[in-house]
Structure formats: structure tokens, C-alpha cells
Structure to design on (304 residues):
């Protein structure tokens, strides 16, 4: 879809009936409740996929909102244990207070990591927009000293990521590599698609070569091909990495990867904040509007 059409879709988004946005979002969001998310995770388990739970809600401004997010994550970890689901959690640092006070975010994350630790589970700090990159890396490194079960994310579009690896690799951090979803300035981010794809391959290779466990988060076959080349060259067994995809995107690629003997984890967002989440994602990245249009007309993902 042309970028003009994409922008038109995004511009008119506020006029789109909430029910229609909900119908489109229902492909990308498990539902409003933990029970909805558990149902989706069980269905994913049926096809051999693992999950990572994201409680929707980010950039909160009041400390009590961060406590509610923290408690919901602990409830989710308890449910994962109780229902014997193969799933961990992904936490947006601003949802637990990073934009309010780093110490508050640290305390909330520590409580979540402690709960995960009790169940032998794992917590990943998602990576948000660039004002929070350094704070998130610092938070992850600080938590890692106390909790071995924490990891974070690097974005291939950020020029700094190649160097950030060194600090993370020094403590054998579990790192997810993704392209990056936010709109960033050229001064700090690669803009050209092919360059971002190449950087994705370089980051994955550097992390795998450093002995880090890597979450390869992409639906782009070029990125997957480069990751598989590194895995093959380094003769890595499937317990050293996993592929990761978003709920609702390209189930055939999921199957290709699990059939190939690779671990595959699906990102499963849930919560009452689905409307804000869905519309924010669309505004941040107009190209996704193309997927909305396709979904609206029942066409399925562009990759088939
Ligand atoms: P690209 O956008 O080129 O997509 C490749 C193909 O996948 C497209 O041709 C399209 O068909 C399909 N596709 C992609 N997105 C789709 C969609 N929404 N609907 C339908 N089809 C779609 N970002 C970030 O900044 N911080 C983070 O912490 C994370 N975390 C994260 C976790 C996981 C598990 C994933 C998969 C992704 C993220 N991301 C993220 C988002 C990531 O940065 C990136 O924006 C998306 O994954 C899209 O990039 P691709 O590599 O898939 O390539």
C-alpha cells in the first residue's frame, strides 16, 4: 500500500468506529482479561509455540498506576504457573514507572522478577522510544545483578545498538533483537530498510557469538535467513535462541519455524487498554495501517 494511503488511514483513524478498530485489534490483542490471554496461550501451545505476555498500558503518570501494572504481572505469572503454560512476561518500563522515577521502576520490576524467580520464570524489559533507551539498559543491567532471570531488547534501527551489545554481552544478558517500532530521528536511527535489515543480522550474529541467548523477533524472512546463517555457522543447538513473532501476524511462518525444529514464542498483549495500544501502534508506524486495511477487508497478512 502506498504511504499516502497509509497516512490517510492513520489520519482518519479517530473517525473509525471503535467497534471496527476492535475487530481489527482482536487479531493482535488476546482480549481484555488474563483469562482471554490464557485461552490464546493454550491454543498457541497446541501448535507448539511458547508465549510472552504483555499487560497493555504504557507511559503512566501516577505511581499507583505502576503498582496496578506490577500486580497484574504478578497475577499473570501465578496464572502461568498454575495453568502450566510455557510462557514468560514482557514489561514496558514506562508502564512500571520509568518515566516517573527510575527507583520506582526498579522496585516494581524487582517485585515482578522476584515473583518470576519463585516459579523459575523469566521477565523481559521491552524497549520503548529513544528517550528511554539508556534508562532501560541501565535498569536491565542493575536488575541482572540480583535476578538472573531478566532480559531486555535491542532495536536494529538504532545506531547505538551495536555498541550497547558490549555492556549486555559482558553479563550474558538474554537479548531480544527487533527492528524497532517507534519513529526516531535520522541522527540516532538508520532509516533505510535494507540497512536496518543488515544491522539486524549483525546484532544477532554478535550476540550469538558472544554466547548470549537471543530472541530473534521478526516476521521478515531476510532477517530470519541471516539469523539462521549465524546459527548454522556457530553450530548452535535450538536451546541457545528462539524466534519471536507478534500475535496475529503470519501463522504460516510460525509453522515453518516450529516444523524446522526452532523454538518460537508469540507476543500476546492483553488488557483493557487495547484501544489506546492499537491506535498508538498505528500512529507510530503508518505502514502498519496497510495491515489494518487488509484485515478490514479480510485479506490476511501481505506475506500470505
Ligand atoms: P517488517 O515490518 O518488514 O515486516 C515483515 C513482514 O511481516 C511484512 O511484510 C508483513 O507482511 C508482516 N508484518 C509485520 N508486522 C505486521 C503486522 N502488524 N500485521 C500484519 N503483518 C505484519 N519493537 C520495539 O520497538 N520494541 C520492542 O520491545 C518490540 N518487541 C517486539 C517483540 C516481538 C515478539 C516482535 C515480533 C516485535 C517487537 N517489536 C518491538 C516490533 C518490531 O520492532 C517491528 O516493528 C515489527 O516486528 C515489524 O518488523 P519486522 O521485522 O517483522 O519487519
Amino acid at each position: 500500500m502506498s504511504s499516502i494511503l497509509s497516512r490517510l488511514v492513520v489520519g482518519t483513524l479517530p473517525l473509525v468506529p471503535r467497534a471496527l478498530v476492535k475487530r481489527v485489534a482482536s487479531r493482535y490483542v488476546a482480549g481484555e482479561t488474563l483469562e482471554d490471554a490464557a485461552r490464546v496461550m493454550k491454543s498457541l501451545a497446541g501448535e507448539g509455540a511458547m508465549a510472552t505476555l504483555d499487560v497493555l498500558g504504557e507511559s503512566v503518570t501516577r505511581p499507583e498506576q505502576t503498582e496496578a501494572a506490577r500486580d497484574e504481572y504478578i497475577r499473570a505469572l501465578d496464572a502461568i504457573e498454575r495453568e502450566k503454560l510455557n510462557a514468560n512476561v514482557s514489561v514496558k518500563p514506562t508502564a512500571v514507572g520509568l518515566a516517573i522515577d527510575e527507583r520506582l521502576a526498579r522496585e516494581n520490576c524487582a517485585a515482578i522478577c522476584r515473583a518470576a524467580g519463585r516459579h523459575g520464570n523469566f521477565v523481559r524489559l521491552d524497549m520503548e522510544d529513544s528517550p528511554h533507551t539508556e534508562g532501560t539498559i541501565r535498569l536491565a543491567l542493575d536488575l541482572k545483578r540480583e535476578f538472573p532471570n531478566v532480559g531486555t531488547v535491542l532495536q536494529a534501527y538504532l545506531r547505538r545498538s551495536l555498541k550497547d551489545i558490549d555492556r549486555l554481552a559482558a553479563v550474558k544478558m538474554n537479548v531480544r533483537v527487533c527492528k524497532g517500532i517507534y519513529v526516531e530521528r535520522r541522527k540516532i536511527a538508520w532509516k533505510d530498510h535494507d540497512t536496518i535489515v543488515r544491522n539486524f543480522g549483525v546484532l544477532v550474529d554478535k550476540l550469538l557469538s558472544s554466547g548470549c541467548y537471543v530472541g530473534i523477533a521478526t516476521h521478515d524472512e531476510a532477517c530470519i535467513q541471516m539469523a539462521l546463517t549465524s546459527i548454522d555457522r556457530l553450530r548452535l543447538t535450538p536451546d541457545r535462541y528462539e524466534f519471536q513473532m507478534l500475535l496475529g501476524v503470519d501463522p504460516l511462518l510460525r509453522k515453518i519455524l516450529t516444523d524446522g525444529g526452532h523454538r518460537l514464542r508469540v507476543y500476546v498483549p492483553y488488557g483493557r487498554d487495547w484501544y489506546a495500544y492499537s491506535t498508538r501502534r498505528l500512529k507510530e508506524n503508518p505502514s502498519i495501517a496497510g495491515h489494518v486495511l487488509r484485515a478490514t477487508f479480510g485479506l490476511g497478512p501481505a506475506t500470505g
About this structure: Residues 300-304 have pLDDT under 50 and may be disordered.
